[in-house]
Amino acid sequence: MRYSELFGKTAREAPKDESSANAQLLIKAGFVEKLFSGVFEILPLGLVVVKKISNIVREEMNAIGGQEVSLTSLQPKELWDEHGRWEKLKGAMYQLRDSSGKDIGLGFTHEEPMVDLVRSRVNSYKDLPIYLYQIQNKFRDEPRPRSGLIRGREFLMKDLYSFSSSKEELDRFYELCAGAYKKVFDRLGLETVYTEAAGGVFTNDNTHEFQVLSEAGEDTIFVCDKCDFAQNKEIAKVKNGDKCPNCDGQVKEERAIEVGNIFRFGTAYAESMNLNFTDVDGKKKPIYLGSYGIGITRSLASIVEVSHDEKGIIWTESVAPAQIHLISLGANSEADKLYEKLTKEGKEVLYDDRDVSAGVKFSDADLIGIPQRWVISEKTLKENSVEVKKRNEDKVILQKLS
Amino acid sequence: MRYSELFGKTAREAPKDESSANAQLLIKAGFVEKLFSGVFEILPLGLVVVKKISNIVREEMNAIGGQEVSLTSLQPKELWDEHGRWEKLKGAMYQLRDSSGKDIGLGFTHEEPMVDLVRSRVNSYKDLPIYLYQIQNKFRDEPRPRSGLIRGREFLMKDLYSFSSSKEELDRFYELCAGAYKKVFDRLGLETVYTEAAGGVFTNDNTHEFQVLSEAGEDTIFVCDKCDFAQNKEIAKVKNGDKCPNCDGQVKEERAIEVGNIFRFGTAYAESMNLNFTDVDGKKKPIYLGSYGIGITRSLASIVEVSHDEKGIIWTESVAPAQIHLISLGANSEADKLYEKLTKEGKEVLYDDRDVSAGVKFSDADLIGIPQRWVISEKTLKENSVEVKKRNEDKVILQKLS
């Protein structure tokens, strides 16, 4: 990518009503733009990161047997009435009446259409288990969108649904998926706390969340300093400073960002929506449902929250918009050649070929946050070298041009 | 892919109210499912095809300088009032009021938010031209959705917007994009007619459409039998059998599917939405806008319409869900080995490993429509061979297993 041609260059200012670090930095660095409260557009650099995050999630979901589908945003009221959630979600789900008088909701989550799809295509025990997922925008009528891309009205999510013939199979997959989530967040460079939580509008059972410790988060969780005890405030019976219920450690209160969650619905949908299968013995039995979400744009925002400094973003290698930020200081023809060479080698390079000052190029590179900055100038060329600096280190080294 | 594990197997029946070949075949073959009128869900096999079509479009858009972004479905009324389309689109655009009292429309098309994005990020002639595109669902409140995936309420589209500093640059890109569209449809195996047309709710100027001749289409166009004259009925001053206005040929009436269209808005948005730039001479000048669409799911449906027989779909190689449909007839351990070998070689194989009759496997293979069917059985193994048949040929050949 030549920076001179890229749409979405750095901006001096971000909207004043967006106080979160993720919105400020992502807008200023040219990754996203705000359309209105809680609604963000993804620019070319941002889309590279979104696709890298999505692909990591996709790989780990495929690895545990997930099959990708794409359901719709438009969903009929009748379907949402079956489990009683049309009324329950009023004011939270966008609900509208179309020109033919039909009541339609916008995809808030997808249990109902997934259950409907599976009951129409699955009959026999031979067809189970089935794990279906999609990576797709969700819509939520948030009264007060906040924290930038952490809580929006339209956001990208991976949602997987498991359909099992027994409680044991559901439990097995639940653990398998928890492990896959851990891998996803590790690959994204996000340290997460596996936290017991409540089910909200989803289920009355306890669920688990993957929480990133950050002041930008909206969740309060209690974490033990010695063992892996972690509970969301919603269900916790402890308070800050209490003795841990599981060991002799102490519980600490933390504000956190929920980047993933996993739910066990059991047979709740089998009952309400007639989600059944015919077992090997010819008998009709209930299908056990699980539901597993990862916020894609929320993960992106979380990475920025936990990995930035006063100068800008510091991208994790695995999701960075490029590997190398190449800066030419008055050595354009040599820089052009190096850019072509690196690109041919399959390296991802953002090449700042603009006719602007060194100061502007350096501060833009810091703001954008690509892992390595390579500077080529008459001075470095005398040594047949480029000056290489990592975004997260101060050290500058001269590296020979081969 | 092992067919035994695949979600979305063949179904005996498709909904009776879907009379089009594309909906009937895509539902029966397990590529899509219908949620309600005009709203289709994409199953795993269908998603492979959708992604292949999308990637061909993406490659050709990148080749002419397109930069991919992802705008939102939720759009504020204020933005659509600027060019006067909020009122104009009433009854066609889904419009709703959120819980805070804000009026929101669902992405019917994206000229307004694209113009808004570019005016906020582009100031100087140095930033132009810019070509932005996205591949994303559009929403249209169709009173009578019809023809299966050809005219739906929610559908996948590629939309590109060009921002130019002069009429000449817009014209140059318009021709360039027309050429890229021709390449896209050639790669998809779709023969298209480049047709002059009207601009609908988009522009008063004439536009161009890429039309696939098919009885499933909703458009009527007049095409000359000798030259490249082609006009949509909306603007045509000729009728069936008339002499061609451009040569001594004869004009014929055809029903057709519009799979792509290109529009020149010129400075219409510069005037209504203040879409300007500062030129090299320091003067404020209007930006020239163009808009270019390709229906992704509509292209998929069109491929099925023009390429099927009474047994099922016949996929074009470039977008087929797999290259090889491997069938085991009582030779499972050899078939397993062959499947592993082909997969390791990077071949895309749908492997029917089910315990069902040869007849079911053959008719499912014909319905699904993968370009090559390979049959392995005790009979073929005696010759150390597989039986290979192309979907679009009757000939069966024995091919040695290496």
State which percent range the strand residues of chain A make up: 25-35%
**What is the CATH T-level topology of the largest domain in chain A?**
BirA Bifunctional Protein, domain 2
CATH A-level architecture of the largest domain in chain A: 2-Layer Sandwich
Judging from the principal axes of the Cα atoms, what is the shape of chain A? elongated
CATH class of the largest domain in chain A: Alpha Beta
Instruction: Supply the helix-strand structural class of chain A.
Output: alpha+beta
Corresponding CATH superfamily of the largest domain in chain A: Bira Bifunctional Protein, Domain 2
The strand count of chain A comes to 23
Alpha carbon gyration radius of chain A: 24 Å
How would you classify the quaternary structure?
homodimer
Low-confidence stretches of chain A: none
Summed up, the domain count of chain A is: 2
Overall average residue pLDDT of chain A: 96
Largest inter-chain contact set: A-B, 57 and 57 residues
The number of helical elements of chain A comes to 11
- Proportion of helical residues of chain A: 25-40%
Amino- and carboxy-terminal Cα gap of chain A: 22 Å
